[in-house]
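Dear colleague,

Thank you for sharing your sequence with our group. We've completed the structure prediction you requested, and as agreed, I am returning the results in plain text so they can be pasted directly into your records. Please verify that the sequence below matches your submission; if there's any discrepancy, let me know and we will rerun it promptly.
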Amino acid sequence: MSNLFKKTLGYAFSALITVGLCTTIYAKPEIKPLEANIAELGSEYYDFKVKEFQSKDRQRTYKVWLGVPKTITNKQYEFYSIFMLDGNSAMSHLKEDTLKSLTEQNAPVLVAIGYKTNLPFESTLRSLDYTPAEKASAKPAPDPRNPERMSGGSAAFQKIIIQEIAPWVEQNVKLDANNRAIWGHSYGGLFVLDSLLNTDYFSHYFAASPSLSWADQRIINKIQTIKINQPTKKHVLLMEGDIFADSSDKQSPNFDSNGINNNRKILSIFNQQGVDAKFLIYPNLKHGEVFKASLIDILLNKFY
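Please find the predicted C-alpha cells below.
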C-alpha cells in the first residue's frame, strides 16, 4: 500500500463526521439539467479538453472531459490520474476552489467519462455499461432491478476505456502507471470492482456504495471465484454510508440494506488474495450522498 494511501485514511475520518452532519439527506439524486460546469466556465488552475467516443453498436455516445493542471509545464512529467464514471455529474461537483486545492498538492490529471447529455445521470445507458454479465460470453440482458433497461455490458465498456479513451488521454499527457485510479458510485462501483477482476490498467480502485446485492450478488460471487491478477499491485478502497431508510423514506432502489456487511465480505476476500484493500464508512450519509462525499474525499485527501 502506498504511504499516501495509509496516511490519508487516518486524518480523513475526522472530516467525515462534519461532512455527515452538515449534509442534507436525500433518498437519491435529483435528475434535472445541469448548469455549465468548470470546463465550460474556464478554470485558472486546469486546462480542459472534451472528446466524444462511440460504443461499438453506435447506440451510445460518451462525452469525456480531460483536465490537466496548468501548474506543471514539463512535458515529460508523469501525472497521477483519476478516471471518474458518471462524468457529467462528477464534473458538476468540481468547483474552482477544489481545483485550486488540487494544484497546491500533487495535482492529478482528471478524466471524467460521461454521456452526451445535459443530465447528471443517464440511467438506461449506465445500467448497460456499468454492470457485469452473468458469464463472460453472455449477451446483455434485462436489468433485474428494472427490466425495461438492459444490463451486462461492462466488458465492452472496459474495452472502450482502455483501448480508446486511455490512449487519447496519454496522447495529450503522460500518466504515472503506478498511480492510475478509477472511481465509480453505485452501479459505477460495480464497474470499478469488475474492472479490478478483469483488467490491470488501473492501480487504485475506488468503489463508492457499490450495488453489491444487484443480480443476486453477482459481483460478490465473481469476487469469490476469480483469482485476481497482480493483486499486490492493486489498491482498493470501498466506501459506504451508514444510514438505512426510515419507514417513511423513499430510498434509492440501488441501496443495499446489507451493504456494510457485504463490503466487509469482499474486503476479506481481497485481503486474502493479497490486494491492498480498505473500507471507509461515512457516518450519517445515505447511498446517493456518498457520490459527492467520496469523490471530493479521494481528490482532496489524495487516496491514490
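Summary note from our side: Residues 3-22 form the longest helix (20 residues).

Kind regards,
the structure core
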